[in-house]
Each structure stands twice: as C-alpha cells, then as structure tokens.
Specification:
The protein starts with 19 loop residues before the first strand and ends with a strand. It contains 5 helices and 15 strands. The chain has one domain: Fumarylacetoacetate hydrolase, domain 2. It has about 220 residues and is of the alpha+beta class. It is about 15% helix and about 30% strand. A 6-stranded mixed β-sheet has the order 2-1-12-5-6-9. A 4-stranded antiparallel β-sheet has the order 11-10-14-15, with no helix packed on it. Strands 7-4-13 form a 3-stranded antiparallel β-sheet. It binds zinc ion. The site of zinc ion has 6 residues, from loops.
C-alpha cells in the first residue's frame, strides 16, 4: 500500500494510517433520501487500512457493482490513542480534519441489507476511502460549522454544513471509543449529507472543505 496521511502543506504526517471508523445515517436529509429509519443510536462500521487511497488517485469501481455511490464526508484524523474517551480527551486526540469519500456499492449493499448481512463487500473494498490531505485542527475554525461540498463534472451534488450532523463530532468519538480504541493514525468519517449518487467512468470530482480547500479526483 502506498497511502500515507499528509497535511495540507504537503508534508507527510509521521502517523501510520490505520482503520477508518464510519457512521451511517448522521444527517436527516440523507436518511430521508434513502428511505431509511432514523436510528436511535449511531450505527458504526469500519473500513480497513487497505480501503484508504490518496484523493488524487483515480477511483476504481469494482467489477461486481453497477452502482458505486459517492458519500462526501468530513474526516477526522487522530494522533493519540484513546479509549472510552471523555469529550475533552476526544478533542485533545484530534490532529486535523480532511474531506473524504465513503464509496458505497449501493446495489451490493442493498442485497446485503435485505439479508441482514454485514456491509463490508459494499463499503470496505480496496480504494473505497479516498482521503484528502488534512488541515491541522488549529487551522479549521469551527469543524462543527463548516461546509463540505462535492461537484461531479461541474454539477453540485452535495453541499451541506456539518452543523446538521445528528450526532456531533465529539459525541461520535466519545460513543464510538466506548467500543473501539482509536490509535494514532486512525480516522473517523462523520457521515454523509444528502445528494449521494452514482459515479461513472470518466467522472471528474471536486471536493471542497470549508469553502476554500479544494481537491480533485476522477473515476477510471
Ligand atoms: Zn458514509
């Protein structure tokens, strides 16, 4: 694997990339668009290290799917080990924020959901988590009131404030760290707002964080 966490100025972080903890259904308008029930507690799943790829690397849609969806999400990078964290410990363990894609094979996921099976084939495949370089936390003024945006071929697909998260960033860390220890280099993806949709070969994507940090990628 060639993936290495990097910061905005291009410097390699010394953090060894690890797992990615993800949360499903954390924005109401996205829950509505997929006609899912509103969860009573956050639903977590994990992508392995092998899912990570740098944002600029071309996205490869696995052959076993006809419906690879983009989910644009705020990413949180940790530089400390935390377990059963308090809010203060959660805050202190954050190294920075980025923007990433939780690529989801919607057709495969639907079949798995129908049978009550786990989602890994749909969510945790190689390259299913393209991540941008990270903005050091002191440089992002208010991560809970920032904007994440995705345009595909120049058309806005997703554009939302992180203010609309159902479970807020620090709460997500507190709750999830009761189940999983975060190690330095692990990442939390905080859920997608509405506007998820299908990607096709040749698509050009631009992701924007905080109305100023822009990253581009494309689909092979
Ligand atoms: Zn997601």
């Amino acid at each position: 694997m060639t993936y290495q966490h990097v910061f905005l100025d291009g410097t390699d972080s010394s953090l060894q990339a690890g797992k990615v903890v993800c949360v499903a259904r954390n924005y109401y308008d996205h829950i509505k668009e997929l006609d899912n029930p509103v969860p009573t507690e956050p639903i977590f799943f994990i992508k392995p290290f092998t899912a990570l790829q740098p944002i600029e690397k071309k996205i490869v849609i696995p052959e076993y799917s006809d419906s690879c969806h983009h989910e644009t999400e705020l990413a949180v990078l940790f530089d400390k080990q935390i377990s059963k964290a308090t809010k203060e410990e959660a805050e202190d363990a954050i190294a920075g924020y980025g923007i990433g894609l939780d690529l989801t094979l919607r057709d495969v996921q639907q079949k798995l959901k129908d049978k009550g099976y786990p989602w890994e084939k749909a969510k945790a495949f190689d390259g299913s988590c393209p991540l941008s370089p990270f903005v050091p936390k002191e440089k992002l003024e208010d991560p809970q009131n920032t904007n994440i945006k995705l345009t595909v071929n120049g058309e806005i697909r997703q554009d939302e404030s992180t203010r609309l998260m159902i479970n807020k960033i620090l709460d997500l860390i507190v709750i999830s760290s009761a189940f999983f220890t975060y190690l330095p280099g692990d990442v939390l993806l905080t859920g997608t707002p509405a506007g998820v949709g299908r990607l096709q070969s040749g698509d050009l994507l631009e992701l924007e964080l905080d109305n100023k940090y822009r990253f581009q990628t494309s689909v092979k």
